[in-house]
Design goal:
Blueprint lengths: L2 H22 L28 H19 L6 H22 L3 H10 L6 H6 L4 H6 L1 H5 L5 H5 L3 H14 L2 H14 L4 H5 L2 H10 L2 H7 L2 H11 L2 H12 L2 H5 L4 H22 L2 H17 L4 H17 L7 H26 L3 H15 L6 H16 L1 H16 L7 H19 L6 H4 L4 H14 L4 H21 L22 E8 L5 E8 L4 E3 L3 E10 L7 E8 L5 E7 L17 E8 L7 E11 L7 E2 L6 E9 L1
Helix pairs in contact: 1-27, 2-3, 2-27, 3-13, 9-12, 10-12, 13-17, 14-15, 14-17, 14-26, 15-26, 17-18, 17-19, 18-20, 19-20, 19-24, 22-23, 23-24, 23-26, 24-26
Length: 640
């Protein structure tokens, strides 16, 4: 059997064993060191079998695409790369579906949740961005979510700029806002915001997972640059099937995965081909990454050392020494641009933001987690979410470089050695203890590039290379279907199950919503029109609308005496507060029950039962088509 095929079978066998352990939870230590403590761990949550089919279907399509592409002899890449990106996105969404069939709602919840992101909510509370940037270090400790408290202002600025750009395009904002407001239709904070906030939320629910999928492109280009088109195919397939890239959608770390490869690609092209524009672009990309997250400074250290190593060891035949060191200086300038602009424009020194962020991270995360558990579990987590073959390929390639000094001049060898050393240093430092499957996603695509190049160059057996792809997919499927790797700590909006009943009394009363829709009362169920003092009067209202409203209107049900005084009353959102008019679909019949408690001292007599709607924020009542602010339903007789 060819060596490449044997390696493929061995890694597939290892993936199947790991998948069995993960799916059955036979070895809980794989999920992390200490469930139910402050240490990280991945809750075991095997998804219902009925929700597995999209993930398996897309995975099989991805495997079929990989087999087809590996067999092709031509260099045409537009179709396979496009299909690979589409299938990567589809598999991300399939894993979200396994968690919750309402995929769009889940993406929105994960983006809005302060426990998983929270930048949009923080940006939404800022009126004056300039003032916030000037005071950002002091504001960080007052933010009500950990991400904004521990990170530079990059993502807050990005969300703020997105929202305010959409405010200038009200028609577009209204259209983009519709899905988010429908799925968060009881969220008072979002409903009170301009439509541009919900529109920005909907856009940012997609940006990370799309950029994560686009990591495939710079990975393929790096493969072509270092190894050639055939090996680049293997690399693109490995990056597309990275478990961490597939199971954490949407998370900001997917953005870093893409930007890290882009910055590396531009730096390599710029240095090797003597193109200053690319070197500067690499520095600018790194500057953006660090302005979004301080942790990306580690990636900057890798690129910086790579650039210095290149400048110090390249021969004068390639480029003169002055030009080489000028390139390094240009990269350093680019890497500082965002921070220098912030310092000069708003008077905030970079280290002041870094100090507050690091202090907050220490208080909120690092000091709460044990160093000894981190040392071992971090490595297990990295190996699982990157894939054992990626880790083995990276370490094997780094070992080659250490054994053979001539390999130091090879770009992928340098990267393998630097990345391995960086991961060892980060692990020993233990300064960012946390769920590394997500946290270190920034490094995993580059590790996949090195590993893909390593395996592809040592095997021309296409079946063996295809088996490596299948092994990655098996591992990703087992993690995505049995571990809860993403939990949006936010109240999900679920449609109530309305009882299949029809109104006993047909009605036709319409309330006019300003600049919006009409809310129609189409019927009533009122079992009795006589009651005793101290008793309960039950009724059900039946509503219809021609679409969700922009504001959640409160229903009032009142019992009035002959003088118009309120004797009994119940106010609230429809369906016991669970389904306001912002949630109603066009032509949907909403059955809305009420129980009016009658006062025990109510005198005998005839009372009017009336209903209406009002905006709780302003107290303003909606008017009927007859310009009334209530509807008289029926007279009620109260007896002693």
């Amino acid at each position: 059997m060819p060596r490449g095929r044997l390696l493929g079978f061995l890694f597939l066998l290892l993936a199947l064993v790991l998948a069995g352990l993960i799916l059955t939870d036979a070895w809980p230590l794989l999920r992390g060191p200490a469930p139910e403590t402050s240490e990280w761990y991945w809750p075991y949550l095997l998804r219902p079998l009925a929700r597995w089919w999209p993930s398996w279907l897309v995975a099989m399509m991805l495997a079929a695409l990989g087999g087809w592409w590996l067999r092709r002899r031509d260099d045409r890449v537009v179709l396979p790369l496009s299909a690979l990106i589409v299938l990567n996105v589809a598999l991300q969404l399939a894993f979200v579906y396994a968690d919750r069939p309402a995929v769009g709602a889940e993406l929105v919840d994960r983006t809005l949740s302060k426990a998983s992101s929270g930048y949009l909510a923080t940006a939404g509370e800022i009126d004056d961005l300039g003032d916030a940037l000037r005071r950002f270090p002091e504001l960080m400790t007052s933010f009500d979510n950990e991400h904004a408290r521990t990170h530079p202002p990059g993502f807050v600025v990005a969300h703020w700029l997105t929202e305010h750009a959409l405010r200038r395009l009200p028609t577009l904002a209204a259209e983009l806002a519709r899905p988010a407001t429908n799925w968060r239709c009881t969220d008072l904070w979002l409903l009170a915001r301009p439509a541009a906030t919900a529109a920005s939320l909907w856009l940012w629910a997609w940006v990370p997972l799309l950029l994560g999928a686009l990591s495939i492109l710079p990975a393929y280009r790096l493969g072509c640059l270092w190894f050639g088109h055939v090996t680049a195919r293997v690399i693109a397939l490995l990056v597309a099937t990275l478990p961490a890239l597939l199971v954490f959608a949407p998370t900001t770390d997917q953005i870093f995965a893409c930007l890290s490869l882009v910055s590396l690609l531009w730096l390599v092209v710029g240095l090797q081909q003597g193109r200053p524009v690319y070197v500067l672009a690499a520095g600018l990309t790194l500057s953006l990454m660090s302005f979004l997250s301080l942790g990306n400074a580690a990636w900057g250290a890798l690129l910086g050392i790579y650039a210095l190593w290149w400048a110090a060891t390249s021969s004068s035949n390639q480029q003169p020494a002055l030009r080489r060191w000028t390139m390094v200086l240009l990269f350093a300038i680019g890497a500082a641009v965002f921070w220098l602009a912030y310092w000069l424009g708003w008077g905030v020194a970079p280290w002041s933001v870094a100090q507050v962020g690091l202090d907050q991270h220490y208080e909120l995360v690092t000091r709460l987690r044990r160093y000894d558990w981190w040392l071992g579990s971090n490595l297990i987590d990295f190996a699982l979410f990157a894939g054992p073959l990626v880790v083995v390929g990276l370490l094997w390639r780094a070992g080659e470089v250490i054994r053979r000094r001539e390999e130091w001049a090879v770009p992928d060898g340098r990267i393998a050695l630097l990345l391995t050393a960086l991961l060892v240093v980060i692990n020993l430092a233990g300064s960012t203890r946390g769920e590394v499957g997500r946290l270190w996603l920034v490094f995993m695509p580059t590790a996949a590039v090195v590993a893909g190049g390593f395996f592809a160059r040592r095997s021309n057996d296409r079946l063996g290379l295809w088996l490596l792809l299948v092994a990655q997919l098996v591992l990703a499927l087992s993690i995505g279907l049995s571990w809860r790797t993403f939990y949006a700590v936010i109240l999900p909006i679920e449609r109530p199950a309305f009882a299949p009943s029809a109104p006993a009394v047909v009605a036709d009363e319409s309330f006019v919503v300003p600049n919006d829709h009409t809310l129609r009362l189409i019927g009533i169920n009122l079992p009795r029109t006589a009651a005793t003092a101290g008793g309960v009067l039950d009724l059900t209202l039946y509503w219809q609308a021609d679409g969700p409203t922009l504001r959640p209107y409160t229903v009032f049900v009142q019992l009035l005496d002959s003088s118009g005084n309120i004797v009994a009353q119940q106010d609230g959102w429809p369906v016991d507060g669970r389904w306001p008019s912002t949630c109603w679909a066009a032509a949907e019949t909403v059955s809305d029950p009420y129980s009016i408690v009658l006062p025990g001292e109510a005198p005998s007599g005839t009372y009017q039962l009336v209903i209406g709607l009002y905006d709780a924020a302003s107290g303003e009542r909606l008017q009927t088509l007859q310009n009334m602010d209530f509807v008289h339903l029926v007279d009620i007789t109260i007896k002693p």
